[in-house]
Amino acid sequence: MKSRILIVLMTGLLRAFACLPYGVVARIGIGIGALLYRIPSTRRRVVHTNLKLCFPDMSDEERERLARAHFGHVIRSYVERGPQWFGNARAISRLVEVESAIDLAEAHSRPTIFVGFHFVGIEAGCMMYSTRHPVASLYTPMSNVLFDAMAKRQRGRFGTEMIPRSDSVRRALRVLRDGKPVMLAADMDFGLRDSVFVPFFGVPACTLTSVSRLAKAGNARVVPFVTEVLPDYRGYKLTIFEELSNFPSDDATVDARRITEFLETQVRRIPAQYYWVHKRFKHRPVGEPAVY
């Protein structure tokens, strides 16, 4: 009962945010993030651990500034679920500018996997794409069943086919064969199964091989994309890059390393916007100590 009431209140709040000007919503998120950062928490410790591992040459003051900025971005991204999940297609399209190195119409004439990364703007980019083009999206179900149902419904309201990871391979292959591109992200630690350790900023990171395996099984090209938050509350920019050449290879580890190297390049460009609150190094190679 309490969970249901919480979902109703949260849904009402997100709907209210969808009615406010985007700049107001963004500033509310930044403000809440600044307040929450002052409170010691597990997530704040995770952010600092990740930054220390990935940017050992940074001074403590530099990492502190980066952590503060990141916390603001993360909480802002949660608040901005309001206009993303409950705004209309026109409003969402106005918020996101698109720069694509490929002909997006062609994405429906050949099997295409759009591989994204967990920058704070990923939700906005995926939502905007779905207002213009048919697409399927792999997602990880949330622990709260009611909230998961609401998120799945709102994310798919423009026609996106939502595919849970537990059922991903069979359904994703069917979608690809039917001429619909698949969006997924494989830059989080989901455990040792179907994963390999590859360096992420020089630190061994447990990395899924799903992109390589799905591309090979579906004879699909792999196209990276990144959504970034633009300065001065101007919204977002969705950048769709050229397809990865000679991908997949015959070695899933090599493929995972290539994708991770591409991700590193983008993180260095907008470091405050990557999802440092995630325990990226939760699983460790045999013999190496835990870091969290």
TrEMBL record:
GO biological process, one term: glycolipid biosynthetic process
Assigned GO CC terms: plasma membrane
Keywords tagged on the record: Acyltransferase, Cell inner membrane, Cell membrane, Membrane, Transferase
Listed CDD domains: LPLAT_LABLAT-like (cd07984)
InterPro entries attached to this UniProt entry: LipA_acyltrans
GO MF assignments: acyltransferase activity
Subcellular location: Cell inner membrane
Source taxon at top rank: Bacteria
Protein's name according to its UniProt entry: KDO2-lipid IV(A) lauroyltransferase
Species lineage: Bacteria, Pseudomonadati, Pseudomonadota, Betaproteobacteria, Burkholderiales
